[in-house]
Design goal:
Layout: E1 10-16, H1 22-33, E2 38-40, E3 49-56, H2 63-67, E4 71-79, E5 81-83, E6 92-95, H3 104-110, E7 116-120, E8 129-130, E9 133-134, H4 135-139, E10 150-163, E11 166-173, H5 179-190, E12 194-204, E13 207-208, E14 213-214, H6 215-218, H7 223-244
Parallel strand pairs: 1-14, 3-12
Antiparallel strand pairs: 1-3, 2-3, 4-11, 4-12, 5-6, 7-10, 8-9, 10-11, 12-13
């Protein structure tokens, strides 16, 4: 059996593939390179793609720092539909007609109301614990319980494109933001509901999508290539953190 690698450290920006959990990515890399200590800085839902900061060795200590950084997303919202998960993977619970006059001008009037510090009610299908129980475990039983709203900050929210009932938005937000809840809340404000159909993280933890490598590409590397890439990214982020301090 190959020995586990205890001397690997650094950061890898992985372009997480759709339908993979963040844990799936970590498990795949751990097995492929026999890395003993490995984690990530900021979970992406299975339906989402984009930047997943994978931390190797002692760099796992940077997890909290990187998770606290701003995240940038491209999100697609379909209006006129609501699901129990607030994204397209869930069960449709309501369909409504689009409001009269729905279009670019209407969205441009509504979106500024969601900029700045706002409060979000965490979705039932989430890993947040209430009285020791994860909300998604309760939701899967068809139950719903009371939960408290949480403050988050939306630094930027811009309309990129509108096609029919689907809007593509760019969002820069704080740690703890549920983008699917943002989609849901915008739909509620419009009076027709909304659900998230696509989500791509384009920046997170000082890493951009342009720097991210596909999982398939990384799996073609040898250990020395992995160490070199991870070390280079660690040096970049360490410098950025000192500058940002």
């Amino acid at each position: 059996m190959a020995r586990e690698q205890n001397d690997v450290q650094g950061i890898l920006p992985v372009d997480k593939p759709k339908d993979w959990t963040s844990h799936d990515v970590i498990a795949k890399l751990r097995g492929a390179f026999r890395i003993k200590k490995i984690g990530h800085a900021g979970t992406l839902d299975p339906m989402a793609t984009g930047v997943l900061a994978v931390l190797l060795g002692k760099s796992t200590k940077l997890s909290d720092t990187l998770m606290a950084s701003k995240k940038t997303y491209e999100m697609t919202v379909r209006f006129g539909i609501e699901t129990n998960t607030q994204d397209i993977t869930g069960e449709v619970v309501k369909e409504s007609p689009l409001p009269e006059g729905f279009g670019k001008e209407m969205l441009l009037k509504v979106l500024p109301e969601f900029k700045g510090e706002i409060e979000q009610l965490p979705p039932m299908f989430s890993a947040i614990k209430v009285k020791g129980k994860k909300l998604y475990d309760i939701a899967r039983k068809g139950q719903e319980i009371e939960r408290e709203k949480r403050p988050v900050t939306i630094y930027e929210l811009e309309l990129l494109e509108l096609k029919g009932s689907e809007a593509k938005l760019s969002c820069v937000c704080s740690k703890g933001t549920y983008v699917r809840t943002l989609a849901h809340d915008i739909g509620q404000k419009l009076g027709c509901g909304g659900t998230l159909t696509e989500l791509r993280r384009t920046k997170g933890g000082f890493l951009t999508i342009e720097e991210a490598k596909s999982l398939d590409e990384i799996l073609t590397w040898d250990l020395e290539k992995l160490k070199a890439e991870a070390g280079k990214n660690l040096e970049k982020i360490t410098t950025a953190l000192k500058t940002d301090a």
